[in-house]
Design a protein that fits this description.
The chain has 208 residues and is mainly β. It is built from three helices and twelve strands, in the order H-E-E-E-E-H-E-E-E-E-E-H-E-E-E. InterPro entries: DUF3108.
Length: 208
């Protein structure tokens, strides 16, 4: 199976703005809510490379209240002229469990293009697995705690990113990525303060 894991995906779990984190572990989700938008600029020295935006909005999927979590990545300037990137990842999640119901991956990187949709059927739970349906490969049995790459990020924000983390801690997630089960591991590197266009922000750093 071809893995096309770009720097865009790795940056997805690379830095988190602490000002967006309230980090409750139970009850109503106050960590992220509909209307939130986070935008990160990508720079290489003085060269602007592009940006990544994360958005959250309430929506309906098959008549059910869900949250749409969207990641959009775009190169710009000189980088765009050399290697154009237009990546979109969308996850529709159950707002009570934070588990994905549907995932969309639309990748355009240079000449490479990839599109797939995956739906998750939790009513098929049996022998510690559920059935998901991929438009590319059909039905697949996966662990019931499966995430897509975007829902894993928001799940970590709500339940994993907290004051109990220690530098060097490794967070592990089972994800369905590039049409196969993909074990995602990220290492907590500590908190830092960085300058933004408007103020100094506290952020959490990870490496994949």
């Amino acid at each position: 199976m071809h893995h096309h894991i770009t720097f865009i995906v790795l940056l997805l779990l690379g830095v988190v703005n602490l000002t967006a984190q309230n980090k409750p572990s139970t009850g109503e989700n106050q960590t992220y809510q509909s209307g939130e938008k986070l935008t990160y600029s990508l720079k290489y020295g003085f060269i602007k490379g592009g940006y990544i935006s994360f958005t959250v909005k309430d929506t309906l999927w098959e008549g059910t209240h869900t949250q749409e979590l969207k990641l959009f990545a775009k190169t710009s300037g000189m980088v765009d002229a050399i290697f154009k990137v237009r990546d979109t990842y969308i996850s529709y999640i159950d707002p009570t469990s934070d588990q994905p119901l549907k995932s969309v991956r639309d990748i355009r990187e240079g000449r490479y293009k990839y599109y797939n949709e995956v739906t998750y059927d939790y009513t098929t739970l049996h022998d510690d697995s559920i059935t998901i349906h991929s438009k590319k490969s059909g039905n697949v049995r996966v662990p019931p705690t499966i995430h897509d790459i975007v829902s894993a990020f928001y799940y970590a924000r709500r339940y994993k990113f907290n004051d109990a983390m220690k530098v060097g801690d490794i967070l592990e997630f089972t994800t369905y990525f590039s049409d196969e089960i993909f074990p995602l591991k990220i290492k907590y590197m500590g908190n830092e303060r960085i300058s933004t266009a408007s103020e100094i922000e506290s952020v959490i750093f990870f490496i994949p």
